[in-house]
């Protein structure tokens, strides 16, 4: 038997307030954190975990859905404070998490800076500095698509590239729940692609959503937007169709 807790925290990013939802999975042996917020999020994560009678020190494993500022910003600090936490990431994300390769998001931001209007450049430059400041962390376990992790009732790794090449979602068969990361977001009462204009490969991101139709999903946890508990299959099909119509493709 395992429990799923949303560590919903409010943050300010670029002068705007937003909410993100790292996830804690808990059973008799393990406490598994999925993603860990922006840099300097540890105090807010600790407070959110405390609402469920847990602490960051009780975490045994930390699964990284992908290398992006708002998902791994506090990873190095968490690992330094609690070195017993085992960090898990997809094989294609490991070089970026460990700092062996430069962040793809950083490369993307740098490559588009010159084309921005002058009034937007200061904000973009600040974003670039934030991306560059993210500290690397050692990955203790590398996973791949279809791998079944034995913790918290069973966790299946679902490779959902597009937003990032090594992006993963997590399927919990016991509760028919998908922890989506940024494979999809829940905004304005419906599911959507996360920041489609900034997806590294938008067509691949849509194909990843299509792959989710193979899973018996009754509810989705979105990092941006929290719970979606409607007709998951119908909503995923609507999302896929909306993007394929724009591109002239057929599902």
Automatic annotation (TrEMBL):
Q: What is the lineage of its organism?
A: Bacteria, Bacillati, Bacillota, Bacilli, Bacillales
Please write the reaction equations for the catalytic activity of this protein.
3',5'-cyclic CMP + H2O = CMP + H(+); 3',5'-cyclic UMP + H2O = UMP + H(+)
Domain named Metallo-beta-lactamase is located at 19-224
Q: Which InterPro entries match?
A: Metallo-B-lactamas, NDM-1-like, RibonucZ/Hydroxyglut_hydro
Q: Which Pfam families match?
A: Lactamase_B (PF00753)
What the protein does comes down to: Counteracts the endogenous Pycsar antiviral defense system. Phosphodiesterase that enables metal-dependent hydrolysis of host cyclic nucleotide Pycsar defense signals such as cCMP and cUMP.
Q: Could you name the domain of life of the organism this protein comes from?
A: Bacteria
**Name of the protein this chain belongs to:** MBL fold metallo-hydrolase
What species was this sequence derived from?
Brevibacillus brevis
Concerning CDD domains, the annotation shows: yflN-like_MBL-fold (cd07721)
């Amino acid at each position: 038997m395992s429990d799923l807790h949303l560590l919903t925290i409010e943050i300010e990013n670029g002068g705007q307030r937003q909410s993100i939802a790292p996830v804690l999975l808990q059973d008799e042996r393990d406490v598994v954190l999925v993603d860990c917020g922006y840099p300097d999020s540890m105090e807010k994560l600790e407070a959110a975990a405390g609402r469920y009678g847990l602490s960051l020190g009780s975490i045994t494993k930390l699964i990284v859905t992908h290398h992006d500022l708002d998902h791994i910003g506090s990873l190095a600090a968490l690992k330094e404070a609690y070195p017993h936490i085992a960090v898990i990431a997809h094989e294609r994300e490991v070089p970026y998490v460990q700092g062996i390769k430069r962040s793809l998001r950083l490369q993307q931001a740098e490559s588009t800076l010159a084309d921005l209007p002058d009034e937007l450049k200061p904000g973009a430059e600040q974003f670039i500095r934030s991306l560059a400041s993210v500290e690397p962390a050692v990955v203790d376990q590398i996973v791949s698509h279809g791998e079944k992790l034995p913790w918290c009732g069973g966790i299946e790794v679902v490779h959902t590239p597009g937003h990032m090449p090594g992006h993963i979602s997590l399927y919990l068969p016991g509760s028919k729940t998908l922890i989506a990361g940024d494979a999809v977001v829940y905004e304005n009462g419906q599911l959507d692609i996360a920041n489609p204009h900034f997806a590294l490969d938008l067509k691949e991101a849509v194909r990843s959503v299509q792959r989710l139709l193979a899973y018996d999903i009754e509810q989705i946890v979105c990092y941006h937007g929290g719970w979606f508990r409607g007709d998951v299959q119908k909503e995923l099909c609507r999302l896929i169709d909306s993007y394929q119509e724009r591109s002239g493709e057929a599902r």
